[in-house]
Amino acid sequence: MKVTVEITRRPEIADPQGTTIQRALHDLGHNEVMSVRVDRVIHLEVQDDDPNDVRARVEEMCRQVLANPVLEDFAVEVSE
Amino acid sequence: MRTAVVVFPGTNCEMDVAHAITALGGETELVWHRHEDLSNFDGVILPGGFAHGDYLRTGAIARFSPVMDEVGRMAAEGRPVLGICNGFQILCEAGLLPGALIANRDLAFICRFVDLEVTDTDTVLTRSTELGQRIRIPLNSYEGNWVDPSNSGRVALRYLDDPNGSQQRAAAVANDGGNVVGVMPHPERGIDELLGSGDGRALLEGFLHSLVPA
User: Nearest to residue A71, comparing CAs of A44, A45, A39?
Assistant: First the structure.
């Protein structure tokens, strides 16, 4: 099954990259941009047919290594 | 008194650390990250570099290297554990130090001497220094911006200026016991005036004085 993991830095943690991109967008005249955050998406293929099982295992992987619990949240999406 | 200097794939400061410790009268051995037994060592240093390519996050893969169980054991036993630069990042990822290191505020790789102030002398890195003492050693990092949402870290060294956005201007952070310390600038590159500063000596001497026989 295909799994998409979205890892986002918590809103209270600074994102220097996002801030810099926002500044660049403003320099280009896109002053309507209120906020930019750069996050990470990881695509996995998992050998298992039970979506609940896959979700539980990938969430465990997120807690173990894919996300840093000090800084980041994660969301797991499972598809065929 | 022997210090293990751990080498991960991508570590690149191990020879500088080994040289500095030896020059100060200590004894070191380079230890590959797959090593599973550090019982012959009294302390351990995780040197700088790019362990496992810094993939995913700095230190994220390195914390699962086999040697890290032993680093955790030594930390729990109160033995001196020092992470320099990338080693600091690994100790945070391993949960042996609070917080995490993110990209510098201005997204610049900073490579220059920085001036520090000692803010806590009860750690293995700063025990041979005095409170308020000024230390000048080189900083060499992109992810040196320490964030600690838990506000639980003990700051042992603080930048006099604010090069990278690090919380509390922290340049070195210790655990509660003071035996595990992460330092972002490089004390091992400041052990001789010939290289611009000898201030790193006092820091590494503190580490060496903290070693007790295993």
Answer: A39
CA geometry: angle at A41 spanning A36 and A45, to 5°?
Answer: 170
Tell me if B103 and A10 make a contact (CB, 8 A cut-off).
no
Cα B188-B165-A62 angle, rounded to 5 deg: 90
Stated pTM of the model:
0.93
Record: contact A10-B60, CB cut-off 8 A: no
Sorted by where each starts, the structural domains of chain A and their CATH numbers stand as 2-79 (3.30.1280.10)
Nearest C-alpha of chain B: how many angstroms from A6?
Answer: 13
Q: Please give the average pLDDT of every successive group of 10 residues along chain B, which has 214 residues.
A: 96 97 97 96 97 93 96 98 98 97 94 98 98 98 96 95 97 98 98 95 98 82
Domain ranges of chain B: 2-209
CB B41 within 8 Å of CB B214: yes
Q: Which amino acid is it at B10?
A: G
Active site residue B13: no
How large is the ipTM?
0.82
Fold of the domain built from segment(s) B2-209: Rossmann fold (3.40.50)
Angle between helices B200-209 and B14-23 (to 10 degrees): 80
- Sign of the Cα torsion B122, B72, B159, B167 reads negative
Provide the number of CB pairs (under 8 Å) joining chain A to chain B: 42
